[in-house]
Known about the structure:
transmembrane, single chain, transmembrane transporter activity, MFS, MFS_trans_sf
Amino acid sequence: MDGANRTGDASGPVESSQNNNPPIPHDSSSSTLHDASSSDSPTPPIVAKENASPSSDPEATRTTLQTAIIMISLCSSVFLAALDTTIVTTALPTISEHFHSNAGYTWIGSAYLLANAASTPSWGKFSDIWGRKPILLIAAGIFFIGIWDGLKAVDWAGSLAIVGGTLMLLLGLEFGGITYPWGSATVICLIVFGVVTAFLFILNEWKFARYPVMPMRLFNHPSNFAALGTCFFHGYVFIAGTYYLPLYFQAVLGATPLLSGVYLLPLALSLSFVSAASGIFIKKTGRYLPPIWFGMIFMTLGFGLLIDLDVRANWAKIIIFQIIAGIGVGPNFQAPLIALQNFVAPRDIAAATSTFGFVRNLSTSISVVIGGVVFQNEMQKKLAVLSASLGPETAASLSGGSAGASVGIVNALPMAQREVARLAFHQSLKTMWIIHKALEKGHQVTKTGLAEEEKKRRELKGGKKVVDEEKGGAEGGRLSGENGVVKEG
Length: 489
């Protein structure tokens, strides 16, 4: 079947495989799905004829109003997801104190991130089966029950394994040293069985799953490992800033929840601006490696500088450090995803994107958990010093798992005692920043593995067509064949 027939009928039925595998319902919002039984066969090139009329391009037939409505809808969905992730962070100390929850500060955030990280691969596979648009609408509205053939196509064993393994591993890290000792049977069993279940998930995806949630062929190209590794360390560092800077503002500087949100604006605004600018750069040049390298350099510098934050408000440091960190964070929200998608077949784009999201959510969960463990253990070490200055009862409220929920106690103390408590918070957070900085060094290794083969794009007159010139063919890449001429849109 030639390239024209492969793309000409977007609403045609998907052919049944010879081994009577359950058919995957057609996704009318994306390109035609390949037969699942031929997943290992090379993907033929999708070639745009030189004489193709501009009207065959969806962008050419779409009005400006339609494009604006589509972009507003998509941006609203992303805004809802971002708001859901970040809106609670500035009020966490107050919420934890209100409910008298010792471990509430970490649990409120990690509970959401745990569920988010564990379910992301399944949602990506659902969108691959039923289509991006229906799943997007249903995720914002009601629960969707698919047809029986679609339900049979879901990798239930893989979904259960990745959810169970992720939850057990992160719960083990969450409990360790706070709720239970690190050497307790509960913590050891959770971590060990979480790792074992993760290996079972990989084995299932590799050998047994008919329609895997995370196809192992995504990892055929070494650049994909580097892209996912870059995504992991980026998410790990980014969430630490948005999660623990409000704690610094409230516990050390004595800010209110509202003001701590205002103090976080330099980070939020700078990363938003640079993220948009990097997208424009990639669109204009077709190059994604420069934004990745640029972002990693500034992210390393910016979050490293947070170690130097003072126990008293130094606004020059607070603003400049956040701006530098935001400049580093912004470019790497999407650039590593483009690097990943550049080396996967079109039929695997949904799986690759959901894997990318899973890695990012997993890294943010681990970052919050590790940051909480380090901070709480450091506060526990200062129990003797706090007891001598504040008394045993007050010191117990500020140590260990109670620390994050006791910001109100700090601000209510007399001036001399308040300074002792704020110094303890400052030193504990400083240690946490140092640990995050040390672990963040892993991105220096992963980013060097990103492939140097980048798309060189140019607009041709007479229609919107893109010429992709690559230094070498990528196995399973999005482009195949000698011409490498694809239609953009």
